[in-house]
Amino acid sequence: MSTLDKPAPRPGFFRRAWQFVLELWDVMIKPSSVFGLGVLVLAGFVAGVIFWGGFNTALELTNTEKFCTGCHEMRDNVFSELKSTIHFTNRSGVRASCPDCHVPHNWTDKIARKMQASKEVWGHLFGVINTREKFVDHRLELALHEWARFKANDSLECRNCHSAQSMDITKQSPRASAAHERFLFTGEKTCIDCHKGIAHHLPDMRGVPGWQ
Amino acid sequence: MKTKLGIVLLAAVLAAGSGSLVAETLTSGLRGPAPLNDEGPAPPMTPMRNTAEKEVRNYPEQPPVIPHSIDGYQIDLQSNKCLSCHARARTAESQAPMVSITHFMDRDGQFLASVSPRRFFCTECHVPQNVTNPPVSNDFVDIDTMLSRASPGGRR
User: Fold this and answer.
1) Mutate to test the interface with A, among B45, B76, B93 (most CBs of A within 10 A)
2) Mean pLDDT on B129-139
3) What is the pLDDT of residue B106?
């Protein structure tokens, strides 16, 4: 009979994968017969340190001005605009670079933002804003994202450096001290409500509340 | 003989004249002592006047000067930072003086709903002030001072 001669059909992909998982599980739960427990624990610890350190180093590498301005979209548009503002050059020589304002400093928030940024990688790969014209077209949308983020976290990235508690309004101009007393200290407004466009040029502001 | 004497005299006069030309240096409040063919050192930057108080106008038509600093204020087709305080709808919150009603008029004297495009760019007329001693003196007197003088044409 010809049907008996045929080899048994190869199991499907999912079945094979499941079998692999089962075999792996067997290996995982079986005690080691070669390495001592201490060696395994120590090796695991060292591998963990290396993995964690490597992960954070790589993460911090993507959190630098040099990395941000590695793409021409950032270097030629927003970074060149930053250069003339007080956050780039000022009397005391303190500089806020890209991640100081655009990446949360807390670890969990930072990871969340980095995951969101995968969309920005997509945008870079597909050239969503790879010319000045395209960037200008998208400028309002991009700015609205950042303003919404600042509004939602009560301008946290501003307050990492500028805290309302340590602000001496007697050293401010009369206009600034009056406005901060009225709107900032009462919690009625947050930094970004009044200080839009402090580090970059503004998009077409028609339709943005408080602007003409 | 006479012509020779004349030539010598003329040469002496010319020499004296050119000598005084070289020696003479032009001093003006704006240039400083730098010679005309040299560029003097740039004067240091002076601080901006940064208050909330209006300055008196020297004549009624004078565009009021800006009493505060406007560093980094963006005024272009995209946005106008000045209007985020001085626009009609913003003045309650900002307590800033409203843009004058004349700024709403178009060239035919018709009033528009908001600031007319021809009056949009504030710093064409309104300027911030530096805190410095004027390098050139100015003896301008306003019309009220002029009229109250006890001189011909003055109020008696």
Assistant:
1) B93
2) 87
3) 93
Residue B112 lies in a domain: yes
DSSP reduced 3-state for B15: helix
Helix, strand, coil share (%) of chain B residues, nearest 5: 30, 5, 65
> What is the spatial distance between Cα A21 and Cα B129, in angstroms, rounded to a whole number?
76
pTM, full prediction: 0.77
Contact A173 B69 (CB under 8 A): yes
* A16 exposure class (CB count in 10 Å sphere: 0-12, 13-18, 19+): exposed
**What confidence tens digit (pLDDT) does each residue in B73-132 have?**
999 998 999 999 999 999 999 999 999 999 999 999 999 998 999 999 999 999 999 998
DSSP letter, residue A169: G
**How confident is the prediction for chain B on average, in pLDDT?**
84
Q: Is residue B145 part of a domain?
A: no
The CA R_g of chain B, rounded to the nearest whole Å, is 27
pLDDT, one tens digit per residue, over A158-167 is: 999 999 999 9
- What domain range includes position B97? 49-54+61-132
Burial group, residue B64, by CB count within 10 angstroms (0-12, 13-18, 19+):
middle
**How far does the CA of residue B133 sit from the closest CA of chain A (Å)?**
21
* Integer Cα distance of B101 and B96 in angstroms: 15
pLDDT > 90 fraction of chain B, expressed in percent and rounded: 49
B87, A212: Cβ pair inside 8 Å? yes
Here the ipTM equals 0.74
How many domains does one find in chain B?
A: 1
Q: How far is B67 from chain A (nearest CA, A)?
A: 10
In the three-class reduction of DSSP (H, G, I as helix; E, B as strand; rest coil), residue A31 is classed as coil
CATH number of the domain to which B127 belongs: 1.10.1130.10
Cβ of A205 and B78 within 8 Å? yes
Distance from CA of A74 to the nearest CA of B (A): 20
Instruction: Examine residue B124 and state whether it is found in any structural domain, yes or no.
Output: yes
Q: List C-alpha distances in Å: A158 to A118, A161, B21, B81, B101.
A: 24, 6, 62, 20, 37
Structure tokens at A172: 């401010």
| Spatial distance between the Cα atoms of B55 and A136, rounded to a whole number of angstroms | 39
**Is residue B85 domain-resident?**
yes
